[in-house]
Design a protein that fits this description.
alpha/beta, Oxidized Rhodanese, domain 1, five-stranded parallel beta sheet, 15 strands
Length: 409
């Protein structure tokens, strides 16, 4: 029988930032109905596919819970067969967590989204409603609309006239898209998080333009009765602005991010007492052309949005790599504010680089996947509005939960 760890002990470990992976073994669609803030979804039938990528240290503390069916014992056996040695059961399961008076959060990537809401609340990140943005487009105002999502999301549906600039690229590429300081930059995503983080990234980096978010993204656009474009392929030109690189480093420094050299990174990789995640935050094209051994590709904007998926061990170290620096610095600045021990690698790209791209992990069966109300083009308006209402309540829920440790610079 798998030994038990109480909900109070798990919560204490999270508060003290001890390394712990609290894993929800249910399928994603069920996970999205409610889970602890820092729980990560690893469905029991995905352990063989994902565990070695997502849980790199074999003796890290892993705490499991499932649902009414006992998923814990088969999951514990599968993890033990892969070499994991410190496996626990959450005492009382999910109902025990709730019975202890602890919060349950809905949806996926919940703590990243909650962090975005906290950023807006504390920094008063400026935004414009869809109607005002539509009016600016109609009168051909001096604006540039930058879509901070992945390119495939942008191509599926986008604001008319917008340009794809994935989140980590914003600080580097904004000057290429809006070289005139009088141009108003409008940042959008599908909902709220990436537009808030993207807008605040440009503000934090001190771009001379007025920068605002499209309030509520493509959801807000659709609810306002505005039409979206389909199949667009506009991409911002590559950026390598020296000023942007300097300001990005200054933002990272303000957030407490440290820079290390390749020898330092090698020493951390050899430290068997800590979990270490190493991510290359550049574009997929750059990564495939050559990357540092041991670094997995995870574009910076998505890493800030999906940290629980990329790094389920809370309390772990993270090293980010980027040959231009700015993308790693801006990404690290946000991860540090979310309580991560994050470092940026200086150098390493002038040596021998690998070109092999790791095999793509097969996606889960669509019937088990949670359908995000902000993706695709066939979402019902009540579902989109309910999603926004949920996001608006996250700041209050964070306060009730009191485990997050987020600091907004």
């Amino acid at each position: 029988m798998t030994p038990t760890m109480t909900a109070s002990d798990v919560r204490r470990a999270l508060l003290l930032r001890h390394e712990i992976a609290l894993l929800d073994l249910r399928h994603e669609a069920i996970f999205a109905t409610g889970h602890p803030l820092f729980a990560a979804n690893l469905a029991v039938d995905r352990i063989a596919l994902e565990a070695l990528y997502r849980l790199p240290r074999k003796d890290v503390t892993i705490v499991l819970y499932g649902d009414g069916k006992d998923l814990v014992e088969p999951a514990a056996r599968d993890l033990a067969a892969l070499g994991y040695s410190d496996i626990r059961r959450l005492g009382g399961g999910l109902s025990g967590w709730a019975a202890a008076g602890f919060e349950l959060f809905q949806d996926v990537n919940s703590y990243c989204k909650a962090f975005g809401e906290l950023v807006e609340a504390r920094r008063h990140t400026p935004s414009l409603p869809a109607g005002e943005v539509a009016a600016l487009i109609e009168k051909r105002a001096d604006i540039a609309i930058l879509d901070a999502r992945r390119f495939d999301e942008y191509a599926t549906m986008n604001i008319p006239g917008s340009v794809s600039v994935p989140g980590a690229e914003l600080v580097l590429r904004a000057a290429e898209v809006a070289p005139d300081a009088d141009t108003t930059i409008i940042v959008n995503c599908a909902g709220r998080t990436r537009s808030i983080i993207g807008t605040q990234s440009l503000i934090n980096a001190g771009v001379p333009n007025r920068v605002v978010a499209l309030r509520n993204g493509t959801i807000g656009w659709t609810l306002a009765g505005q039409a979206l474009q389909r199949g667009s392929a506009r991409r911002a030109p590559a950026g390598n602005d020296a000023t942007a690189r300097r300001t990005a480093r200054a933002v990272a420094y303000k957030a407490g991010v440290r820079h290390i050299l390749p020898d330092d990174a090698a020493a951390l990789a050899a430290d068997e007492t800590r979990t270490l995640y190493r991510f290359d935050v550049r574009t997929a094209e750059e990564y495939s052309q050559g990357h540092i051994a041991g670094f997995r590709h995870y574009p910076g904007g998505q890493l800030v949005q999906e940290t629980d998926m990329a790094a389920p061990v809370r309390g772990a170290r993270i090293i980010l790599a980027d040959d231009l620096g700015a993308r790693a610095d801006m990404t690290a600045s946000w991860l540090a504010q979310m309580g991560w021990d994050v470092l940026v690698l200086d150098g390493g790209f002038d040596g021998s680089l690998e070109t092999d791209v790791p095999a793509v992990i097969p996606p889960p069966d669509p019937i088990h996947r949670y359908k995000r109300p902000y993706e695709g083009t066939d979402n019902a308006e009540p579902a989109m509005q309910a999603y926004l209402d949920w996001e608006f309540g996250l700041v209050d829920q964070l306060e009730r939960d009191a485990t997050h440790g987020f600091v907004v610079i």
